[in-house]
Amino acid sequence: MARKPVLVTITRIPFVCQVCRAEQFYEREVKLNTTGMELFDMAWANQSATGLVCARCGYVHLFLNDALELWKPEHGYPQRG
Ligand SMILES: [Zn+2]
Fold first, then answer.
1. Which of 5, 11, 27, 35 could link 55 by a cystine bridge, Cβ 3.0 to 4.6 Å?
2. Is residue 19 part of a domain?
3. What's the 72 CA to ligand 1 centre distance in angstroms?
4. Confidence band of 7 (pLDDT split at 50, 70, 90)
5. Domain tally for the chain?
6. From the CB of residue 1, how many other CB atoms can be counted at a distance below 10 Å?
7. Contact between residue 56 and residue 24 where contact means Cβ atoms under 8 Å apart
8. What's residue 79's pLDDT?
9. CA of 35 to the centre of ligand 1 (A)
10. Distance 56 CA to ligand 1 centre (A)
11. Beta partners for 52?
12. What is the CA(63)–ligand 1 centre distance, in A?
């Protein structure tokens, strides 16, 4: 993958992989307007979601809100408070 992995927080709470607890992810936009989604006739089905792919195990975490905060690993997490 071309882009470097990032650290992720949600409302400044560090997010870790739900499988392997790794802290770095690749961000990918995920289109939701697929044929499968159209079956459900959902109003949000034409939106895009944010997929966070674990840099260690590859597990994809899918988010439909825009509360994600991405940080460069070399800078670490932001100061809390
Ligand atoms: Zn993982």
1. 5
2. yes
3. 18
4. very high
5. 1
6. 8
7. yes
8. 74
9. 28
10. 5
11. 27, 61
12. 16
